[in-house]
Amino acid sequence: MNPTTIRATLINGTKTNTVELRVPEDDKRGVNKHFDYILDNYDMDDIREKYREALVVHEKRKKSEAQRQKNQMEFDRLRMLFDQKAMLFDMPFMQDADRDLKAAIRRAPDLFILNCIAADALKKHMEKNNMNYSEYLDVLEELTYSNLDNELDDEL
């Protein structure tokens, strides 16, 4: 582990300069006056040790951030799944659903399985009530607008 550049702040009285310089191959002297100054006044092994420590801290932060992002994605996925399940239980065709269907919805591990179960349940409900998709959408539209009318009446 040998960094190829050094970033340093050089202080000369009240003046400061931040410099970034290339480390000469094999820490050779005489290539760069600033590097020579650093070699004269600081221990390169100490600088390298601080670099290693900073690198370890950086890697830990990077891993921690990656884990946080992964956890957030999983939380968001589960939140969406939960919200979809809750929305599904509010659908009219779920009012007369049996325990097995409700348990299957609760146990659905992801949106794909949940949507498959919901589609099957909706199809059975429509067959049982001799409805097509258009008629079912009319029922949903009627329910939506009647709920909006009730909310408006409550506000007035």
What's this entry about, in short?
With 156 residues, the protein is mainly alpha-helical. Helix content is 67%, strand content 10%.
Helix content range of the residues, please? 55-70%
Strand and helix order: EEHHHHH
What is the overall shape? rod-shaped
Q: Tell me, rounded to a whole number, the average pLDDT.
A: 85
Major beta sheet, strand line-up: 1-2
Description:
It is rod-shaped, with a radius of gyration of 33 Å. A two-stranded antiparallel ribbon has the order 1-2. The chain folds into 2 domains: 1-42, no CATH class; 82-155, no CATH class. The chain contains 5 helices and 2 strands. It has 156 residues and is mainly alpha-helical. The termini are far apart.
Which helices and strands appear, and what pairs or packs with what?
Blueprint: E1 5-12, E2 15-22, H1 33-41, H2 44-89, H3 99-107, H4 111-128, H5 133-155
Antiparallel strand pairs: 1-2
Top keywords for this entry?
156 residues, mainly alpha, 2 domains, two-stranded antiparallel sheet, 5 helices, 2 strands
